[in-house]
Structure formats: structure tokens, C-alpha cells
Amino acid sequence: MTLAQTQVAPLVFPTLKDKVVLVTGAGSGIGRAGAMAMARHGAQVVVTDLDPAKAAKVVDDLGDEGVSAASAGLDVTDDQAVADEIDKIVKTYGRIDVLHSHAGYQIEGNLEQVPVEGMDMSWRLNVRSHFIAARATVGHMRAQGGGSIIITSSNSGVQYDREMIAYATTKHAVIAMTRQMAADYAKDNIRFNALCPGFIDTPFNAGFETQMGGRDQLENYVARTIPMGRWGTTDEMADSILFLASDMSTFMTGHALVIDGGECI
Ligand code: NAI
Fold it and tell me: What is the DSSP letter of 163?
């Protein structure tokens, strides 16, 4: 058979129809783009954020496209609120297939510059909150036969940044935790993968912009230090989120998926 005679099935992205998804920190940036992409691919998405108005705006914007979703205010540092939200989702929709635990925190500085409270808050948001959310979710996923948990780390979890001790340390730690959970729950068909973005132009980089000395300096830094010479887009992150959430990645667990234009090479 020649190559021309070979029947190639059209590439169809697996639908997320009937999948129930919770995204935290989804009112802006990467979380918002991923939540919108999953909803557009048929998932029932619960968009949550510390700021309920931002979460509601995402749902409104999806509504303008004819796509439905639900929103709620949720502070991921409130353990009880996180557990209650997950239980409410299972009660309302009967299951939870995907948890994208995304909200995080960045404080710049080296060992002497970062206040102890800044280190504590980094641990609280970048590690502990993912532990709490995953802990509240796995029992439901085991009972239903599996699920996908996506935890946002950073490429700062696989490399060392200058004067970002609290961020780099906690983003490394959460990859270790993700891999440990992946090993423990693989037998239950619950997949855990870490999403590791590089420079994505969202409000999250405001602190780093200040540290760099302003927007022009930041743009210059990105152009010089990212091998691809540019920022990544939130849509490029959403593509990876879709991949990790869907049946495109059913044999993939314990992975740190780095999407950073080559920065950490
Ligand atoms: P963003 O600033 O666009 O959105 C973050 C959202 O999280 C905001 O809507 C904010 O209200 C919400 N949030 C803040 N504290 C919260 C809390 N306690 N509970 C619930 N929601 C809360 O940020 P973006 O770009 O989406 O980044 C957020 C995550 O992505 C963080 O985990 C960060 O470490 C990671 N990341 C971002 C990169 C970037 O260049 N934008 C690069 C690498 C990682």
C-alpha cells in the first residue's frame, strides 16, 4: 500500500462532553483561558475565583458565545470552602472529572528580602492549597473510576530564577507533591500532572515587572532571555490544559508539562 492509499482518520479532538470540571483562580489569565476552552469543548465547568465578579464575568463571556458554565467565589486558602465547593459540585452534577487547581502566589526577593510571611503565603497558595483541593477530590474520583487533576506549577519548578526564593522553592515542591500523588493514585486511574508555564502576559507578572524596573525592561528581558523571543499566550496554555484534561492523555501521569518557549533549556 502506498502512503497515498493509506486511510488517515481525521484528527478529532476528544470531546469533554459530560465531563465535570472545577477550575480555581479562573477569573483571569491562564485559569480563565483553560476554563473557557474546556467549556467550549463541551465540559460542564465551574469557574471559581477569589473575586466572584471575575468568575461571573467569565461565565457571562461564555454565555455570549452560547456556551454555558457556572461560577462561584472561592478562596483556595479557605480549606472548608474548598471542600464544600467540591462536595457541592458532586451533589449538583453527580461527579467531578477534572480539577484544575490553578491559583498561585508570587513574591520576589532573595533569602534576606522575602519576609517570613511571604514565604508562608507562598507555601499556603503554591503547595498547601493544591494538597487541600486534591485531598477533597480524590475520594469522589476513585468512586467514579478515575479523573484528571492538573496542578499549576511553573517553569520555575524545574529551574532556578534569580531572587525568587519563595516562588521557585514552592513551585519545585508542588511538582514533587504532584508526582508523589500520581504514584499513589495511578491504581485508581486518577492522573496528576503539573502545568509549568513560562512567561505568559497576564496580571500575574506585575510584581516581576516592578522588580525588573518597568514594562520596557520586562519586554526587553522576555525578548532577550526566551529562546523563542516572545511571551506565550493564554490560548497556548489552554491547549495544554485541554490535553491534560481530556482523553488525549489517558496514559500520562506524574508529568511536569513545561510550556515556556524554551526558557528552561
Ligand atoms: P492572573 O493574575 O491572570 O489570575 C490569577 C487569578 O487568581 C486572579 O483572578 C485572582 O483573583 C485569583 N486568585 C488570587 N488569589 C486567589 C485565592 N486565594 N483563591 C482563589 N483565587 C485566587 O494569573 P495567571 O497568569 O493565570 O497565573 C496564575 C497561576 O499561574 C499561578 O499559579 C502562577 O504561579 C502560574 N504561572 C503563571 C505564569 C505567568 O507568566 N502568568 C508563569 C508560570 C506560572
Answer: T
- Nearest alpha carbon, ligand 1 atom 32: 104
Active site residues: 167
Ligand 1 shell residues, CB under 6 Å = 24-25, 27-31, 49-51, 54, 74-77, 102-104, 106, 125, 152, 154, 197, 199-200, 202-205
Question: Which of 30, 195, 236 most suits a substitution to test ligand 1, by most atoms within 8 Å of the C-beta?
Answer: 30
Give the side-chain half-sphere CA count within 13 A for 150: 35
Helices (H) and strands (E) in the chain, counts: 9, 7
Q: Which domains does the chain show, CATH number per domain?
A: 16-202+233-259 (3.40.50.720)
212-260 pLDDT, tens digit per residue, is: 899 999 999 999 999 999 999 999 999 999 999 999 999 999 999 999 9
Model confidence pLDDT, tens digit, residues 81-136? 999 999 999 999 999 999 999 999 999 999 999 999 999 999 999 999 999 999 99
* Closest ligand 1 atom to Cα of 198: 42
pTM score > 0.85 for this model? yes
20-23 and 44-49 as β-strands: parallel, antiparallel, unpaired?
A: parallel
